[in-house]
Amino acid sequence: MSSIKDYQCGHGKLLTMPCDECTAVTDMVNHPPHYKVGGIETIDYIQAKLTSEQFEGFCIGNALKYISRADHKEDATEDLHKAVWYLNRLLPLKVSKKGTNPPSE
After folding, report:
1. In which band, very low, low, confident or very high, does the pLDDT at 5 lie, cut at 50, 70 and 90?
2. Is position 41 within any domain?
3. Which residue of 26, 33, 42, 78 lies most exposed, with the fewest beta carbons within 10 A?
């Protein structure tokens, strides 16, 4: 399964490809730089501090948050991509707990 990424260039433009005017590309959906202040990605810190059940709820809650507010933004795609990101983070936890493989595409 391929992932869809949005980028924010050094000029602050939200793009799906690098900006022609600069080479600075930041993945604003999967790894925003402000989420790694302190040397650890925030999601990894949260997962380390919560029980498995709490973390699953955290992922579900965040996916719901992004889905619920997506249509209230000028461009819904970034929030929908973030919701998918949380569901992709949740799915391996559910699969490993159940002990089955995900269905093939």
Report:
1. very low
2. yes
3. 33
Domain count, the chain: 1
Q: Which residue has the tokens 């999601």?
A: 43
CB half-sphere exposure, 36, CA atoms < 13 A: 10
Q: 1 in a domain, yes or no?
A: no
pTM: 0.64
Full DSSP string of the chain:
------EEETT--EESS--TT---EEETTT--GGGGTTSS-HHHHHHHHS-HHHHHHHHHHHHHHHHHHHTTSS-THHHHHHHHHHHHHHHHHHHHHHT-PPPP-
Note the pLDDT tens digit of each residue in 75-98: 899 999 999 999 999 999 998 887
| Domain, as residue range, for 42 | 7-98
